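Rather than argue in generalities, we have chosen a single entry, letters for residues, whole numbers for local backbone shapes, without further comment.
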Amino acid sequence: MVFKVAVAGASGYVGGELLRLIAMHPELDLGAVTANTNAGQPVSALHPHLKSYQERVFVETSKESLAGHDIVFLALPHATSAEVAAYLPESVLVLDCGADFRLEDSKAWEKFYGTAHAGTWAYGMPELTLASGGKQRENLRGVKRVAVPGCNVTAITLALAPALTAGLIEPKDIVSVLSVGTSGAGRSLKADLLASEVQGSARAYGVGGVHRHTPEIEQNLAHASGAEVKVSFTPVLVPMSRGILAVNTAKVSNSFSFTKLVAAYEQAYGDEVFIQVLGKGQQPNTSSVLGVNTAQISLSFDESAQRVVIVSAIDNLVKGTAGAAIQSMNLALGLPETLGLPLDGVAP
């Protein structure tokens, strides 16, 4: 069966990546591609690399333009998706790549986003280990509304969840520092993202627990651990266009051993196609996951500091957003989970 799919907000980086993956998916037929200020422009003007859709033109995002589709991806700014989702029929599978429906705590949403909480949808991270048993994957089968995770959130959550589920690290002493490519900030022009400002430089942002991904990270890791989790999370903007390298450290619990840690990750991810736990002496590299829906993870133990060091690497536009959306869509539709998602990356 072929499903007709629309992408709202297709002119941005995430929208463009969705179009690239849709073109490779054998069960998807692209319908409307919408934009706001870029409506009326050809797809080639903003995504010249997408040869499959060069003749397509962006249309305005509206109830009329999104009507008649089986699937709608929302690649819209935060607090905008809820407005569009409100007029989409319940029979349509809707996947929101923004933050509107990720958080369960309305107070946390209002604190970090400053608007009314729109609600909570099924969370689109299939590999997330749960303290209650199993993985988040089972909560995605057959659903019609999916909240796609944040990219920084994915890098941290996948790195730490198995250790917390196994009770091998302390849940309230976690520090994560991420090197993040500029595409993670979106396509809209910002003075601090100009090439002249980024080239040859690195800069921390969202410092001091104010980054909007913080409550989502803690929410996920609480589900993994079964207890409250506190994370000190600092992203660092670095001069690369895409990719995230997350260095996560945590104090070990009384039951910790490195052998148990390795076993926990083998149990959690040994059968996961899109997660690669590297062997001793190997470290993740953002260039190794470029263009694919894969997360690389390494495990280390700093014996002197009694802390684990778990490093992860993802492509923020694929495993961090668009790839996760396609993966969750496959589960919701009952399709093979890996369908349409490339396993081989590109040379750096």
